[in-house]
Write a structure and sequence with these properties.
The chain is elongated. Strands 8-7-9 form a three-stranded antiparallel sheet, with helices on both faces. The chain starts with a helix and ends with a strand. Helices cover about 45% and strands about 10% of the residues. The protein has three domains: about 100 residues, Endolytic murein transglycosylase (Dna Ligase, domain 1, 2-Layer Sandwich); about 80 residues, no CATH class; about 140 residues, no CATH class. By secondary structure, the protein is mostly helical. It is built from twelve helices and nine strands. α7 packs parallel to α11. It catalyses: a peptidoglycan chain = a peptidoglycan chain with N-acetyl-1,6-anhydromuramyl-[peptide] at the reducing end + a peptidoglycan chain with N-acetylglucosamine at the non-reducing end.
């Protein structure tokens, strides 16, 4: 056999070995622990850091082969995300998932009627992969958020639109809240532009404040437009709104679950039993339904309502209101305005 043929044969043997090693290393599935492996890849993580994290987690038994495969693919960007691996998986599948961004969805939920402190609690309890650095804390958080572009009129309260907001590990909580603020701005100004005529509201912010009160009244969606009409009629006549949720907001952590007679007289600009007009800021995050209810209220002259479970009864006069209280509430229990 000639020297050239021996060299060619040796070369083919080496190439076969290399391709075989590459194929086994990249495509042979590895068994993962029964509970699986979770690897967070935060925003801003370099590709080298990503590969190192995957290797430390045990997902990549051959990180250099993985890097070679990634290079042969043309160095496509690997996406940030929360990656969960279970069962048996090979390195080629890991690479495909990283490039395609096939990560576990993460989202921050904001529920209609939540206050800013409720959203903060949700971030603390259920969003461990959000970066909470630079997120204002304490009693002045609503004011400081507004200074950072999350809120207006000096407060973030009421300005975060209830929805589910997707994110990946390393996203700042501040940026997610800013998205919620931009969404509320868009929805509020769109609804304000198409509002019903003759509303006793001077600007979109007043609509936001009243919508937050309607939201916190806790009525079923079908009743919100009628309840909004009651409050709007009271504003027209200069009557106090007399909404319990505003007093509860004024009490803050002092509220124990039921309003006492003395608490109903707490001195605060949020106490709508003592002060006419609207409170200075929203008292919660209103949902789309309560915003629409305020800007497109029911056609009604009612000034009072009482609630008995999910049933609501309305009246135009105080005399009629007292009769309804006697008929519906004194015998069965309930709440009323």
């Amino acid at each position: 056999m000639s020297r050239k043929r021996r060299a060619a044969g040796l070369f083919l043997l080496m190439m076969s070995f290399l391709f075989g090693f590459y194929g086994i290393g990249m495509y042979w599935p590895e068994a993962l622990p029964a509970k699986g492996v979770t690897v967070p890849i935060p925003l801003g993580t370099t590709n080298a850091q990503t590969i190192a994290s995957l290797a430390r987690s045990g997902v990549l038994p051959h990180p250099r082969l993985f890097h070679l495969a990634w290079a042969l693919a043309g160095y496509p960007p690997m996406q940030a995300g929360l990656y969960e691996f279970r069962g048996r998986i090979n390195q080629a599948q890991v690479l495909h998932r990283l490039i395609a961004g096939q990560s576990t969805p993460l989202s921050l939920l904001i529920v209609p009627g939540w206050r800013l402190q409720d959203i903060y609690q949700e971030i603390h309890d259920k969003a461990p992969y959000l970066d909470q650095q630079n997120l204002p804390q304490g009693a002045a958080a609503a004011r400081y958020l507004a200074r950072q572009g999350v809120g207006a009129q000096g407060s973030a309260e009421g300005w975060l639109f209830p929805d589910s907001y997707r994110y990946v590990p390393g996203t700042t909580a501040l940026s997610v809240l800013r998205r919620a603020y931009v969404r509320m701005q868009r929805e509020l100004h769109s609804l304000w532009a198409g509002r019903a005529p003759g509303l006793p509201l001077g600007d979109p912010y007043q609509a936001l404040i009243l919508a937050s009160i309607v939201q916190k009244e806790g009525a079923p969606p079908a009743e919100q437009a009628h309840i909004a009409a009651v409050f709007l009629n009271r504003l027209r006549q200069g009557m106090p709104l007399q909404s319990d949720p505003t007093v509860i907001y004024a009490l803050g952590e002092r509220y124990t679950g039921s309003l006492t007679t003395s608490e109903m007289h707490v001195e605060s600009p949020y106490n709508t039993y003592l002060h006419t007009g609207l409170p200075p800021t929203p008292i919660a995050m209103p949902g789309l339904g309560s915003l629409m209810a305020v800007l497109h209220p029911a056609d009604s002259a009612d000034l009072y309502f009482i609630a008995q479970g999910d049933e609501y009864h309305y009246s135009e006069s105080y005399t009629q209101h007292l009769k309804q209280i006697q008929h519906y509430l004194q015998h069965a229990g309930g709440a009323g305005l």
